[in-house]
Every structure is written in structure tokens, then in C-alpha cells.
Specification:
Largest sheet: none
Shape: elongated
Structural class: mainly alpha
Number of domains: 1
Strand content: under 5%
Distance between the termini: 8 Å
Length: 117
């Protein structure tokens, strides 16, 4: 990855250095997994679950997405999803659903940056 792409990823809340450590310095592998992230449908499932007030589906989608973000060092999005999962599990639906605007914005920024790879 060139420095411009790395800067875009970092600007979108992805800790590239930490991710590269996890991927043993293999930039091509990291890039491949970041692109796979875009093909995952858990964000869409989360949006639907929140819109339909389906707490069980929302917990599952948010938790799954949180795990992927953690593995890819998407720290800003991971932190938001961790808060959402905690709120959902505590039965705090209003708080969990109110996080969606910020989660959507962060997800979009990450997706845009990854799309430039």
C-alpha cells in the first residue's frame, strides 16, 4: 500500500500499524481482508434489525461486526459497536439505536477508504 492509501485508512479510523502487526506485516493479506469486510452484510443486517426493533438480530449483527472491526483494527468503529452491544445487552434500546447515526457515518468513512484500495 502506498502512503496515500495508508493515510486514507488511518483517517477513517483504521489503525493500520496495529492491523499490519496482526497480519505479520503482510500488506496484501490485510488489503484482501479489508476488501472482504466490504462484502460482509452484517452492517445491513444491523440497520434492518434496528429499524425493525429486533433486539436479538441487532445484538448478533452488532457483535459480529464489532469482532470484525476489532480484528481489522477499525478502532473508532469497534468502540462504537462495543458501546452498542453493551447497551443492547442491558436492554437500553434507545441508547443502542441512537448510536446508529454515528456508527453509519463511521462505517461509511471506513468503507470509502477501503474502496480506494
Amino acid at each position: 500500500m502506498d502512503t496515500e492509501k495508508i493515510a486514507q485508512l488511518k483517517g477513517a479510523g483504521i489503525n493500520v500499524d496495529e492491523a499490519l502487526e496482526r497480519f505479520m506485516g503482510n500488506e496484501a493479506l490485510l488489503e484482501r481482508f479489508l476488501k472482504k469486510f466490504l462484502m460482509d452484510d452484517n452492517f445491513q443486517k444491523l440497520e434492518s434489525a434496528i429499524a425493525e426493533h429486533d433486539q436479538e438480530a441487532a445484538v448478533f449483527a452488532s457483535h459480529t461486526l464489532k469482532g470484525m472491526c476489532g480484528n481489522l483494527s477499525m478502532t473508532l468503529l469497534f468502540d462504537l459497536l462495543a458501546r452498542q452491544v453493551a447497551a443492547l445487552r442491558a436492554g437500553e434500546w434507545k441508547e443502542a439505536s441512537e448510536l446508529m447515526d454515528e456508527i453509519s457515518e463511521r462505517y461509511g468513512r471506513a468503507a470509502d477508504a477501503i474502496g480506494c484500495l
